[in-house]
Amino acid sequence: MLMRTDPFRELDRFAQQVLGTATPGTWSKPAAMPMDAYRAGNEFVVCFDLPGVDPSAIEVDIERNVLTVKAERRPLPGGDDVQMQVTERPLGVFSRQLFLGDTLDTDHISADYSAGVLTVRIPVAEKAKPRRIEIAGTREDRKEIQA
């Protein structure tokens, strides 16, 4: 139902740490956004970790069957007298794309953001839900069954 993209994401994250290229402006690829995805009843739920991101800096788009989540963590406001002592939290744009299966209802996606976690809910399409099929037969077959 859901497919993850970019199999080299962990390799990129490792390279950023080793080469020290994780500072803003020196790495052109958007930083990774950890996620969990699971099915709960008749919907798929995807949770993205976005701590410290303002809700107005989050975009969720769907085009065809591709769900795109973009978020931007901006630097803390400060004046000329602020000197950073430690900067370990990555700043900049974070992006993630998921390819959704045809069995999901992309017209009724919902999203909410709470405690630094963006939760996207995607219902299973009616056509993909299990349903019972009635068996039809000829009139003679029906009479034999009733007798």
Summarize the structure.
This protein is mainly beta. The protein has helices spanning 9-19, 139-146, and strands spanning 2-4, 35-40, 43-49, 58-63, 66-73, 92-100, 110-114, 117-123.
Commentary on this structure:
By secondary structure, this protein is mostly beta strands. It has a single domain, classed as Immunoglobulin-like (Sandwich), CATH 2.60.40. The chain is 13% helix and 35% strand. Strands 1-6-5-4 form a 4-stranded antiparallel beta sheet, with no helix packed on it. A 4-stranded antiparallel beta sheet has the order 2-3-8-7, with no helix packed on it. β2 and β3 form a beta hairpin. The protein starts with a strand and ends with a helix. About 6% of the residues have low confidence.
- In what order do the strands lie side by side in the largest sheet? 1-6-5-4
Number of helices: 2
Our measurement of the CA-to-CA distance between the termini, rounded to an integer number of angstroms, reads: 46 Å
- In round numbers, the mean pLDDT is 79
Uncertain runs are: 22-30
Main β-sheet: number of strands, strand sense, barrel status?
4 strands, antiparallel
Inertia-based shape:
elongated
- Name of the level-1 CATH class: Mainly Beta
Radius of gyration: 23 Å
Organism: Actinophytocola algeriensis
InterPro entries: A-crystallin/Hsp20_dom, HSP20-like_chaperone, Small_HSP
Domain SHSP: 26-138
Protein name: HSP20 family protein
